[in-house]
Specification:
236 residues, alpha+beta, four-stranded mixed beta sheet, single chain
Length: 236
């Protein structure tokens, strides 16, 4: 019976497959799961990769996980600190990590972190905090913003249309820079007003892109060096 319950739990929470679940108990609005890692499983050293089972000590980690049945899930996981027996390695001990369940210094499972990151990207801080409370997950708007800022930048695509504009580097001084813009890559400023700046920016593209000059001064020159079907728009 116990084995069947453990299989059912791991079917609902598959990231617990690498640990031994000892207790599951609801406490109000929280589902408490007590688990530990196996003593016989060797874990690799994060520096040299040498596997080790020699135990130094152990400690308990508390991880927040995605809600189940309308209850928040808290995993109390006992992990080992192991010795690294490689003589050439400078690390003496290391804490084991469970794939798919723990990360260094993490207080949330990767599944919950991914969910909150998606909420943060879609709704940002306060609105995301209100939605997370309905999931239910306890998180602040500031934390959601931190998760969104920690995500990697999306891969850049070749812009379909490239626009060029100018801006004043300093008010009252006749010094200007160039701003190539596109709907894909956003804004990238260059501290030069010469006609070679937009030409080089456009030439760096792997495929020809239309160049639309928006001023009547030097930045209109790239049209002469690289044919373009875009209509010239004069800002002055």
């Amino acid at each position: 019976m116990l084995a069947e319950c453990e299989e059912l739990l791991k079917a609902v929470l598959p990231h617990l497959d690498g640990v031994l679940v000892e207790q599951v108990s609801p406490q109000g609005g929280v589902l408490r799961i007590v688990a530990r890692t196996s003593e016989s499983v060797a874990m690799p050293c994060p520096d040299c990769g040498t596997p080790s089972v020699r135990r130094h000590s152990g400690y308990q980690r508390r991880l927040a996980d995605g809600a189940v049945g309308g209850r928040q899930v808290r995993i109390e996981l006992t992990v080992r600190r192991l010795f690294c027996d490689a003589s050439e390695c400078t690390r003496m001990t290391f804490a084991e990590q469970v794939d798919g369940l723990t990360v260094r210094y993490g207080r949330r499972t990767p599944q919950l972190k991914g969910l909150l990151s998606a909420v943060a990207v879609a709704l940002a801080g306060r609105a995301g905090e209100r939605l997370a409370a309905e999931l239910p997950v306890s998180v602040s708007g500031t934390t959601l913003l931190s998760l969104a800022m920690g995500l990697p930048d999306p891969s850049a695509e070749t812009p379909r249309v490239l626009g060029v504009d100018e801006f004043a580097l300093r008010k009252g001084h006749h010094s200007y820079g160039t701003v190539p813009t596109s709907t894909n890559d956003g804004v990238k400023a260059t501290p030069s007003r010469s006609s070679s700046t937009p030409s080089s920016a456009n030439a760096a593209s792997p495929a020809p892109t239309p160049l639309c000059a928006t001023t009547c001064n030097g930045s209109a020159a790239p049209r002469a060096t690289r044919p373009c079907r875009s209509r010239r728009v004069c800002a002055r």
